[in-house]
Amino acid sequence: MHPSMREASGGAHPGEDRLRWLAWLLLLSSLVVIVRVTLAPGTAQDRIPEDFLCLLCGQAGLANLLRNVLLFFPLGVALGVLAQARSWQARAWMGAVALSILIEAAQTQIPGRNPLLIDILSNGSGAGLGVLVGAAVRARVRNPPSGRLPLAADPRLWMGVALGILLTTGWLLSLSPPPPPHYVQWTARLGHLEVYEGSLRAARLEGRHLEPGRHPDPSFLSRGLTAGGLLELEMEAGPPPPGTAPVLSVFNDRQEELFLLGVAGEDLVVHLPHRATRLRLTHPDIRAWDAFAGVGMGAGVEVGFRLRSAEACFTVDGAERCEARPSLAKGWALLLFPPRVGRGGRGVLSTLWLLALAFPAAFFAHSGTGGIRNGALLALASLAIPLLPLSGTPLVPWTAVALLMGTGLGLGAHWWLGIGSGTAPAGGQDGDETEGHRSGSGGLQSPKRGRP
Q: Which among 20, 225, 259, 451 has the fewest CB atoms less than 10 Å away?
């Protein structure tokens, strides 16, 4: 066995063995997810029609960049925990970058995929950040509360990150209609979306007809669609499309979306002009689940839509149903295209997102009381942010509950790994071994050098 993988002598902190096993599990899981996400064939709609050197590619270029950072972040965390010496941390990071390069090379031969330099850079950045966090986790487990810890183990940093993400999410989900001129389109072929094979017979906004083409009163159109105007459509239903197919859409001359109402399977889907869209992030849609269930192909259907302060209301042949507008829990939807999962699956993703936001501030806390205080502050912030003028999210109490659950998980991991019960390592106060020092076992370590 390579000396870097041999068990070292000396006592180890009680939680180190548990942490190492978790790191190996995270390492293997991350590799499986990375291979599955990056090497599966894509569709023509998934392919970004840009060259290798483009930076923010496509309509959701910033979302693509951030997704690639997050994709390699867990891998970096696992490597940071397992790499006992700084030199091994650097080698582990270079290995992650090499993996990204191999993936981009392989994508040249996979249908629906294309290599991009920005993917390599963002994957490497995510792995590098992960290595720093993984090293901080290991140092936090090994050091007593009085020991000197790296910046990434400071709970104040993670509180700032969580609060910043919540505030930014609220701002990004506020509405920001694109400037005119605005063009109305019926059952448009947009390239990146499906084509609706039914037809639109008539469209009215506040009783005024919306005909295809440039609209003569863009302020009325923008205000009506985003500030509570009643939109009425008379349709002939087509077959259920596999993805979102626009029925009525409004764009400006720079292809910036003001509004879209479409059909996805048996659901009605609405896109609103969130700030996120103009910053090249993805936008969460609003769905009336199964609104077209039982509607036969060729049947005449009357559809209505009205946006309210906290919800969006749909009518299908006179039957009204209202769905909540995107909340702070939908921060994940700014990075991911709406997944092909149902209402329950999206609820799970929203809960996992909030758990992940609250977990680090509790895990790295210096005491249980400090972790509880951090969780309470995050929960209160989630209730206050929707009340701010620049926020576009409704007040959803479940958001605060999920953040408190994430706090509980962080404190549970804090206790399970025995944080604060160990002794400072002999090699230094910061918990990072020097090139010739090793403690613990099972990690990536540099060979021990003998004295001359």
A: 451
